[in-house]
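Try it yourself: sequence plus 4'-phosphopantetheine, in.
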Amino acid sequence: MSEERIGLYPGSFDPITLGHEDIIRRASSIFDRLIVAVLINNAKNPLFSVDERVRMIQCVVGDIPNVEVRSFSGLSVEFAKSVGARVLVRGLRAVSDFEYELQMAQTNNIMCPKIDTIFLTTNIRYAYLSSSIVKEVASYGGKIEDFLPEQIIPLVKEKYSKEKS
Ligand code: PNS
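Structure, out:
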């Protein structure tokens, strides 16, 4: 019997955007199982807690049977090893992403040569999109409907309305 192909898509997902959703849907068709992993990183002062982010991703991609959402701390490659994933998935939006992503992929490959990184080019519709930009727009009361999965929009709005009150 052939070995199960497991991919790991690590990230901050604070919050999941339409660009992330697109990568998850496409990557899920490449692997037998895709694990979407939210990094526990208190240094980043996130808008949503790790549990909230995990639940939000589950809500958006819960219809895809081979996708599992987890949280992790420490190195992505260590988490990949612990779940049996041989491939890390990352989205590439533009040339500006490339340098950092290449550095990370090469460092990860030195630390763990059995693990490779594959890049999916972000759909051109979402090439400009990042969680940070969406948060910036939302913090000024701007329209976020074009950027986020519909289930996530009220949750982001609620965070910023709470901040104001
Ligand atoms: O969504 P992000 O913030 O661009 O994701 C970055 C992430 C979580 C993939 C990256 O910071 C990461 O893998 N962090 C865990 C620590 C680690 O493995 N660092 C890479 C060594 S170069």
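One thing you can check immediately is this: The first helix runs from residue 18 to 28.
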